[in-house]
Amino acid sequence: MTQGDVKRVVVTGLGAITPIGNTLTDYWQGLIAGRNGIGPITLFEPSRHACRIAGEVKGFDPEAFMDRKDAKRMDRFAQFGVAASKQALADAGLIIDDQNAPQVGIIIGTGVGGLKVMEDQQEVYLTRGPDRCSPFMIPMMIANMAAGLTAIHTGAKGPNSCSVTACAAGSNAIGDAFRLIQHGYAQAMICGGAEAAITPLSVAGFASARALSTRNDDPAHASRPFDINRDGFVLGEGAGIVILEELTAAQARGARIYAEIVGYGLTCDAYHMTAPSPGGEGAARAIEFCLKDAGITPDQVSYVNAHGTSTPANDSTETAAIKRALGDNAYNIAISSTKSMTGHLLGGSGGIEAIAAIMAVHHDIIPPTINLETPDPACDLDYVPHTSRESQVDIALSNSFGFGGHNVTLGFRKFQS
Question: What does each C-alpha distance from 4 to 8, 98, 301, 397 come to in angstroms?
């Protein structure tokens, strides 16, 4: 399918709740400044855990976006999703009313949903009995609630869904929303990812799988994608939401356009529950499909926001996938992992990282990969180490790969009418 067969789709609004800032401006300034958002865990007492560090959202007040009663009936991940969605709508200047509500949809992905509520209610069940469990437990924990509650809080009555594809969920949400607008099922979509999985069970489970960094005494340098001394990812939390609109509708209301979304590639490794396929075959196909969907060639790509988790397996495999998909051009393309600053937001990562790619296109500034002190010989591309770089960014890709073998690449282009 080519761009000529379908409607054009543009980005008109962005909202971000992250470990380095709770507004779009603070998040973007944090990225280009190379700000570290990782520190000791404070959301629970972590002394028994092998990993005691995370990228926590600081100073978030849900009552700035909803009343206290509503906030108490939401898991933290849903609070993040609603808050970032309201930010994005305000940024877009998009008002939802009776006329356009059926044409505004929502897809908000998540990896694990309301895990904190589930853990808390299990404790209630064990200590106080089943009759004391909250009647709100189920609607607070199920994964679709960030999307459902955002609809309730914004009035959007169009297509509504939730992607649950592990760490690819936020990117799948944006890509699926793109498709809905392309084919006329919606005029605008609120889309992205939300996650709040810094909980005792989550940290214990990821640590038992040996996925997390245990650099507890040096959290500022724990997330170090593409560095030979990386020892695992750092769990993060937050939400990234993008407003996508059909081009003519956006132009008709005089919307500011950040970028055009032009490509969406998705594949599955069909290989292993947690490990990527050898040589990055599945990830490479996702990149290739995105380029084909967008009608662009590898030499046109300016920047890749890498999945870049800081795990031994991901970073070398992703490097191989980029080389496989982009050929010799891979050595001429700027690549960075913003997880070096935010940690890994699981299902929320695709949302905030798409925003990083979009803002790179909009501002012609590429965020850095911090903590890249000793590059892994298997990771030999240009990862923009330490400091951001001013450079023209005409086309940016954003990669997201998830447990289960899910691979997604999104493509964004500088808007030209």
Answer: 8, 31, 20, 20
The two domains 10-252 and 264-413 share their CATH topology (first three levels equal): yes
Model confidence band, residue 106 (pLDDT cutoffs 50, 70, 90): very high
At 341, give phi and psi (nearest 5°): -105, -35
The answer to whether 162 is a known catalytic residue is no
- Identify residue 276 by its one-letter amino acid code: P
pLDDT band at 323 (very low <50, low <70, confident <90, very high): very high
**CA neighbor of 206 nearest in space, from 45, 50, 313:** 50
Closest listed residue to residue 186, CA positions, set 209, 161, 166, 159 = 159
What 3-state class would DSSP assign to 41?
coil
Residues paired with 213 in a beta bridge: none
**What is the tens place of the pLDDT at every residue in 57-68?**
999 999 999 999
Helix (H/G/I), strand (E/B), else coil: 29:
helix
Instruction: Determine the straight-line distance between the first and last CA of the chain, rounded to whole angstroms.
Output: 21
Query: What length does the chain have?
Result: 417
Q: What confidence tier does 5 reach under pLDDT thresholds 50, 70, 90?
A: confident
Are 277 and 405 in contact by the 8 Å Cβ rule? The answer is yes
The CATH architecture that domain 10-252 belongs to is: 3-Layer(aba) Sandwich (3.40)
Is residue 14 within 8 A of residue 91, CB to CB? The reply is: yes
For the record, the structure tokens of 289 come out as 């499909």
Alpha helices by DSSP H, 22-144: 24-33, 68-72, 76-92, 115-128, 137-141
Read off the pTM. 0.97
Query: What's the CA gap between 406 and 402, in Å, rounded?
Result: 5
pLDDT digits 0-9 by tens, 344-398: 999 999 999 999 999 999 999 999 999 999 999 999 999 999 999 999 999 999 9
- Homologous superfamily (CATH) of 264-413 is Thiolase/Chalcone synthase (3.40.47.10)
> How many degrees, rounded to 5, is the angle at CA 239 between CA 234 and CA 241?
140
CB contact set of 344 (below 8 Å; sequence gap of 6+):
55, 167, 223, 233, 234, 235, 236, 309, 310
Structure letter (DSSP) for residue 19: T
Q: How far apart are CA 303 and CA 360, in angstroms?
A: 8
Asked whether the predicted pLDDT for residue 152 surpasses 80, the reply is yes
Residue boundaries of the structural domains of the chain: 10-252, 264-413
Q: How confident is the model at residue 3 (pLDDT cuts 50, 70, 90)?
A: very low
Q: How confident is the model at residue 329 (pLDDT cuts 50, 70, 90)?
A: very high
Q: Which of 167, 191, 290, 379 is catalytic?
A: 167
